[in-house]
Amino acid sequence: MSDSAPAKSLVLLECLVAGTTHRPGLREFEPQLQPGQPLALAREADSSYDDWAVRVLTSGPGETFWLGYLPEGRNETVARLLDAGYPLSARLTHKAWEDEWLHLEIEVLLAQ
Questions:
Q1: Which site among 7, 19, 24, 41 is 20 to 30 Å from 100 CA-CA?
Q2: Coiled-coil region(s) at which residues (predicted)?
Q3: Residue 61, C-beta contacts closer than 8 angstroms, at least 6 positions apart
Q4: 4 pLDDT above the threshold of 60
Q5: 1 falls within a domain
Q6: Which residue range(s) make up the domain with 38?
Q7: Which positions ≥6 away from 12 have C-beta within 8 Å?
């Protein structure tokens, strides 16, 4: 477990971030992303595409950057926990370019 994660946290989900190809400026922002860095999750309850939409964002000091979404079909439990006020966060575990797609792997964490 990286030093940036809470001392005791439970990994709820390991997944890829969906929609990275649709995020303007991500290619330029990508060098600032480092494996192990903490990320934030934000519910998008008014999404017209997915009732359980959860945004994945950078966290910490400075401007927040919207990276993409938790994948549809794997996000309902996380969305319900966020709606109920549980302290969820995420952590970047891997990044790699595959042609024009930025492959971002994350862990969704529940602080204990």
A1: 41
A2: none
A3: none
A4: no
A5: no
A6: 9-111
A7: 77, 78, 81, 88, 108, 109, 110
